[in-house]
């Protein structure tokens, strides 16, 4: 999705959060904050004034963390009570696509705007440049053989890095037409690769625009080839319809969801038993002329037959406290709960957690919208969250279901 407003704008938002917290605080938030005695120390959170501090110079964190909110008591079973939220890095621009490498014991993530990839090293907590030129990479995953798979906006393709270091193009065309800007990607144990292809990278900041007359450059004012000299080539030059694709182990690409079935597809994930596919339909973004998503999470039954999806239904409409939240990326845990990054007002944005029936059971408040998240660490019990220019983490009492 598009980068957030400037840091100055975020500071302005934080100045007004005292009033905001009075209007958006949910009556079912954790710890019964309104029942605390007046002389009890109240731990800071993202809706207090002054707001919670982050980073190396922040005071010790309170536990249980005031920004980890229990809505249904079942969420408590997924939490490690002694854990606190930490911001581990804040030198990015718009971070996306976190994926855990079990072999390398590092977290890979992309900065879509600066066109770099980084890795968070488990043993030291250090963040280092992984690829200084990533072609405006967005989503990442690792397949069941430990190979990195990446969506590249600038070249409008999905690639897989083989064990010998070579790059294999998984997909860059469908029926002879170039892709739009592959966004998020997941791997299936049968060797297939599933990815969404909206047009969010059809802009100057996150990729490149279309040629004159295309949806992302209808009047031709954008100098669409600028930046090509840095790399030597660009991807497709005219946006196609949105699709959600499946590429089988033999390399054959099929559409599993058309634009009519689910416009503006974004994040996607499987249930732990691979009986369901969850896909997010996001709102209109640059290049998205003529259609719009519903900013909801949809779920489909998954089969091995030629037509793999059936029984389409709404999982959650992502409305909370009268506000339409913006879902982006999501992951399932081993119990089938869905952890979803969301954008929205300060005090509401962060992570929403749903049980397999689609009921909201918990929230994680962060001062920035969360673009995507994943479970990492040697035991896969750390939740890593990409939010604007920052990377956050929280230890939990569950594990991620996917390999990355």
Automatic annotation (TrEMBL):
Where is the secretion signal located?
1-30
Top-rank taxon of the source lineage equals: Bacteria
- Tell me where in this chain the SMP-30/Gluconolactonase/LRE-like region domain is found: 96-386
Residue numbers spanned by region Disordered = 35-59
The protein's UniProt keywords, in alphabetical order, are:
Hydrolase, Signal
* A GO MF term: hydrolase activity
InterPro entries recorded: 6-blade_b-propeller_TolB-like, SGL, SMP-30/CGR1_Lactonase
Q: What is this protein called?
A: Gluconolactonase
Q: Which organism is it from?
A: Acetobacter pomorum
């Amino acid at each position: 999705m598009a980068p957030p407003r400037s840091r100055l704008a975020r500071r302005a938002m934080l100045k007004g959060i005292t009033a905001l917290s009075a209007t958006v605080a949910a009556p079912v938030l954790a710890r019964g904050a309104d029942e605390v005695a007046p002389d009890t120390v109240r731990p800071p959170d993202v809706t207090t004034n002054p707001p919670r501090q982050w980073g190396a110079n922040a005071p010790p964190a309170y536990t249980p963390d005031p920004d980890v909110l229990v809505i249904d008591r079942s969420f408590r079973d997924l939490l490690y009570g002694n854990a606190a939220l930490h911001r581990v890095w804040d030198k990015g621009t718009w971070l996306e696509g976190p994926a855990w490498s079990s072999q390398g014991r590092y977290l890979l993530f992309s900065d879509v705007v600066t066109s770099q990839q980084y890795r968070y090293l488990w043993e030291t907590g250090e963040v280092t440049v992984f690829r200084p030129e990533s072609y405006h990479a967005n989503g990442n995953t690792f397949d069941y053989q430990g190979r990195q798979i990446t969506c590249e906006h600038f070249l409008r393709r999905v690639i897989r890095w083989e064990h010998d270091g070579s790059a294999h193009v998984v997909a860059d065309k469908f029926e002879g037409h170039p892709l739009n800007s592959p966004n998020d990607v997941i791997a299936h144990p049968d060797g297939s690769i599933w990815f969404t292809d909206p047009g969010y990278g059809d802009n100057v900041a996150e990729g490149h625009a279309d040629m004159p007359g295309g949806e992302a450059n209808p009047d031709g004012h954008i100098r669409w080839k600028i930046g090509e000299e840095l790399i030597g080539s660009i991807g497709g030059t005219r946006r196609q319809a949105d699709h959600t694709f499946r590429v089988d182990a033999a390399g054959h690409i099929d559409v599993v969801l058309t634009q009519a079935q689910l416009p503006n597809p974004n994040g996607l994930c499987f249930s732990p038993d691979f009986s369901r596919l969850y896909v997010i339909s996001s709102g209109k973004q640059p290049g998205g002329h003529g259609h719009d998503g519903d900013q909801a999470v949809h779920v489909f039954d998954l089969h091995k037959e030629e037509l793999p999806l059936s029984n389409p239904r709404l999982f959650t409409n992502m409305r909370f406290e009268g506000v339409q939240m913006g879902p982006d990326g999501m992951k399932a845990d081993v119990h089938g709960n869905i952890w979803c990054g969301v954008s929205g007002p300060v005090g509401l944005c962060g992570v929403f957690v749903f049980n397999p029936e689609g009921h909201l059971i918990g929230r994680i408040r962060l001062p920035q919208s969360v673009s995507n998240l994943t479970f990492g660490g040697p035991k896969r019990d750390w939740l890593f969250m990409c939010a604007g220019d920052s990377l956050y983490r929280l230890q939990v009492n569950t594990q991620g279901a996917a390999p990355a």
